[in-house]
Amino acid sequence: MKTETRGSTVSTNSFITQQPGKTIWILYAVISIIIRLPFWLFYFVPRTLRPQPQWTYRQAITNKVVKAGTYFFFSMRVTPTLSLDPGKEKERFVVLEPAPANLYQGVLQDKIITPVTIGGTWYPDPYRKGEARERVILHFHGGAYALGTGRGEDTGYVAKLLIQYVGNKVFAPQYRLCSVPGGRFPAALQDAITSYKYLLDLGIPSSSIVLSGDSAGGHLVVGLLRYFSEHNTLLPAPSAALLWSAYLDFVPYYGSVERHHNYATDFLSRPLMDWSREGFVPELMRSTDPYISPPRHPFATNTPLWVGVSGGEVLEDENDEFVMNMKHINGNRVEIYAEPHACHDILGFGNVIGFETEAERMASVAGTFLHNL
């Protein structure tokens, strides 16, 4: 029987999250996918039977395999490990100390969750004080606030596209996750402030900083922009912000993923989203709070905002709603681009699921947006 605690590491007595149940579940998952794979390989030969007729054969197969694999994996709720050891990133990985205490105000003040030392990775190499002025992308990785490190294994492809089409350098913080102790809201937002102040302290002007975030990282960017708006004398605003398939709505409509009209054309599944919602939202905070679910809570911002979304993903509606409401605020500059037939977060996973061309096109559109500012 499963027991849940909101706003902390989700504790569970579920059979599949403990041994030997975890091993049995993995064997079942592998066997299940192997058995179904020949059917998928045959079934998706005709274009008319693919989730989207415009999809390639590879896209149709990988979407099914990835969806099945992630469903089984996220059901186990494997707790990730965040390390401050440089590892394979070597000199590209840096350690950040918390910013001055006065920068963490309002919603960032919490009796239990306080700013901590975090890490971050530079791409393609670290920024050096005194370098020629360059556009620096402060990118927050995806993973539903439950997974990800900002290191090469989950952010390398994103960074490659951002450097090619958007900016000269990318810094990806290793922010705290809600799947580990001390990682519920506002931990990640505190770490976002720490990261932004780190870039300013390097001598990078705010006019050269662009915020960026895919999936849950997009949610973090929106929270940071809202915080800048509410505390506009603390820190200078960034030059622009980019959202990629942002995961914006944490209101727990259980089962809604399966009922969504884009469910068949996306690899997102309920286990990951449930895990995220249960661990991210504080126990004494409503899931409808503006910082938790921003689509229905627009705010004024001086930062130009670009939103990229895919027409085949389950998060399409909440991104559309967010953009529509933000555009109603006088003075906001908000643009949206929709890649018609793609699935969730092609910027982050396009190389895995066969959407490289679509990911490059989306990144190119974002680069044009910045060029025209």
The stretches of 5 or more residues where confidence is low (pLDDT under 50) are 1-13
Strand order of the largest sheet: 1-2-4-3-5-6-7-8
* Proportion of residues in extended strands: 5-15%
The DSSP helix count reads: 10
Indicate the radius of gyration in whole angstroms: 20 Å
Shape label: globular
Mean pLDDT: 92
Distance between the termini: 54 Å
Q: What is the count of β-strands?
A: 8
Helix content: 25-40%
Tell me about the biggest sheet? 8 strands, mixed
Order of helices and strands: HHEEEHEHEHEHHEHEHH
Q: Helices and strands: which structural class?
A: alpha/beta
How would you describe this structure in keywords?
single chain, 10 helices, disordered N terminus, alpha/beta, eight-stranded mixed beta sheet, 373 residues
Fold and architecture overview:
With 373 residues, this protein is α/β, with parallel strands linked by helices. The protein has helices at residues 21-43, 57-75, 152-165, 187-201, 216-230, 256-259, 270-280, 316-327, 346-353, 356-371; strands at residues 93-96, 118-123, 136-140, 169-174, 209-214, 240-244, 305-310, 334-339. The protein has an 8-stranded mixed β-sheet, sandwiched between helices. Helix 1 packs antiparallel against helix 2 (57-75) and helix 2 (57-75) packs across helix 7 (270-280). The protein is globular, with a radius of gyration of 20 Å. The N and C termini lie far apart (54 Å). Residues 1-13 have low confidence and may be disordered.
